[in-house]
Amino acid sequence: MKKHFKSFAVLSLLAFSTSTSAQLTSEISLDVTKEGNVIPKEIYGQFSEHLGQCIYGGLWVGENSQIPNEKGYRKDVLQALKDLHVPVLRWPGGCFADEYHWMDGIGPKEKRPTMVNNNWGGTVEDNSFGTHEFLNLCEMLGCEPYISGNVGSGTVEEMAKWVEYMTSDGNSPMANLRRENGREKPWKVKFLGVGNESWGCGGNMRPEYYSDLYRRYSTYCREYDGNKLYKVASGASDYDYNWTRVCMKAIGNKMNAISLHYYSVINGWDVPKGSATDFTTAEYLRTLSKCREVEEVLQKHIAIMDELDPKNRVDLLLDEWGTWWDVEEGTNPGWLFQQNTMRDALVASLSFDIFHKYTRRLKMANIAQIVNVLQSMILTDQEGTGHMVLTPTYHVFRMYNVHQDATYLPLEVKCDVVDTEGNRKLPLVSATASKKNGQVHLSVTNASPDKTETITVNINGLTVKNAEGEILEGKEMGSYNSFQKPEEVKPAPFKGAKVKKGVLTLTLPAHSIVTLTLK
Ligand code: AHR
């Protein structure tokens, strides 16, 4: 039996419902005169990895494919990603990055060597998608590339030459090689990761040893011809605060940012992770409360950074996050192909509501992975029929993109809170607001598995006349888009906003998300 209680010490005069009623009430207090930080658009970053069908079959099918493509990139996927306004794309991994040798992925395709992708299912990688294909994709999407360099099995020379190849405009060996390969002008590459998960698949190192390697590798990553590098140290996983502490002490003055990875895995790493689509209410609540625990994890890493970097010089990048379920039946276990339901959509909205609060330090977040892997935006048919579906998570990213580069408006939520398995608590309402170009946007999530929420929104500094926007809801918390029913979950105009005597009231069905423009 779940315990219901109200969050926050101040319980106010609200008439709260009991746990058995079909309707809950809650309250949001928003003061549009109190402005916070700008929410960097990079909080809405993506991650692409040579893993399963993320690159091959997902982003890239090659120019000779039957699937409609533009220079080898899937047209449908490209368009969907353009609509999403992807600000930054990380590549080539993940774990793959520390086994990737970039020189294998340049030059004439027929001469590129093949390799075995040891991390991900032993798949043969033909290197037909390499540096040019990735950086050109970023140009087509209008996003910043974020390159993850190989520290685990690569050399200092290899990383240094990669930076030179991509960014030098001089008469230098690597710039000339790039020109021979058909690209005259260098690309601009700002974000450079020096290793990935160096505590694990990136080399199983101790933070002290990694810090020394970071110093060495990053020294030779030069800035060519006006290209400013933003160097990212490979950071901690979840609750490994010692990693952050050691790295901040040893290399805090030599990096622009340190990363962090946090996945909403509810059963642990070495046991079945649970089905993406077939789950109980208890598992639903446990997932959302585990996702919300990222707040405490961010706070603790940030506290260490504040102690060791009081001038706030080093940024924190959550460059991998999202849900992780068992693979879909019949798919390669090493490809991590998972479906994506309303539960995943709520993980996305609840996560953004938290990320927006910590942007003094948190400057980027990259959900894993953009297509066909963990909490993806898009799934393409694994049979290669050319079908594509947008996931509920895609729709949240699209609805929330009004918050990119907007000024954060702090707010307070009073709502019912439930205890979930694993000793965590879950407030049933979550919200975030921002202001851009004179317009206030409010996103609200009702996380209740089965109850409608009536939410009163008290606003200081704005007399609301109406609130318009979209709602994302599923018939079930496990509703998802399949190739048979690609539009089972999609945004619709929101009809549940009422303004009476200047007071805004929202009625949100169970497991739903809205983004509204307040006018
Ligand atoms: O996202 C899948 C894997 O998770 C990444 O390759 C790795 O960095 C992390 O362990």
Give a summary of the structure in a few sentences.
The protein has ten helices and 28 strands.
Report on the structure:
It is a single chain. By secondary structure, the chain is of the alpha/beta class. The chain folds into two domains: 15-35 and 410-518, Golgi alpha-mannosidase II (Immunoglobulin-like); 41-406, Glycosidases (TIM Barrel), CATH 3.20.20.80. It has ten helices and 28 strands. Strands 3-6-9-10-11-12-13-14 form an eight-stranded parallel barrel, surrounded by six helices. A hairpin with a 5-residue loop joins strand 7 (115-117) and strand 8. Helix 3 crosses helix 4 (173-180). It is globular and about 70 Å long. 50% of the residues are buried. Residues 1-20 have low confidence and may be disordered. The structure holds alpha-L-arabinofuranose. Alpha-L-arabinofuranose (AHR) binds next to loops.
Structure class: alpha/beta
CATH H level, superfamily name of the largest domain? Glycosidases
Task: Give the overall silhouette.
Answer: globular
Number of strands: 28
* Largest sheet composition: 8 strands, parallel, barrel
Strand order of the largest sheet: 3-6-9-10-11-12-13-14
Query: Count of DSSP helices?
Result: 10
CATH architecture of the largest domain: Alpha-Beta Barrel
